[in-house]
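Hi all, long-time lurker, first post. I run a small reading group and we've been trying to get comfortable going from sequence to structure in the token notation. Rather than ask abstract questions, I figured I'd post a concrete chain and ask someone more experienced to write out its structure so we can walk through it together at our next meeting. Sequence below, copied exactly:
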Amino acid sequence: MDQTITCINCPVGCRLKAAVDGGKVTAVSGQGCKRGVTYARQECLAPTRMVTGLVALKGCRMPLSVKTERPVPKDRIFPCMAEINRAKPQPPIVMGQVICENVCGTGVNVIATKSVSPKR
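-- Answer (accepted) --
Happy to help. Here is the structure in token form:
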């Protein structure tokens, strides 16, 4: 079965055609670089995405921006967002600090993307 996907590894957005047979990618065409082949293989068999979001902080009006340290399986994005939304960390927060450990059992941590001082 052929799948047509758009590569998101760079701004070019190559239109890739991947042949999938028996749970394996047997051929990829349309890529402008080697990264396109790697992307097509992963996207067809086990798609992943980085997850970013905002977390409410205890005692602060401004939310904290967070992201996953690595991509998570695409089918786990909504459960991950639900878990992120339940987090209510309290300042001080340091950029890179783990906000949700092992989010949804994915083995991936959610980290703060900025530092926040306690409210004075």
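A couple of things your group might point at:
The two ends are 60 Å apart (CA to CA).
Residues 95 and 114 are 4 Å apart (CA to CA).
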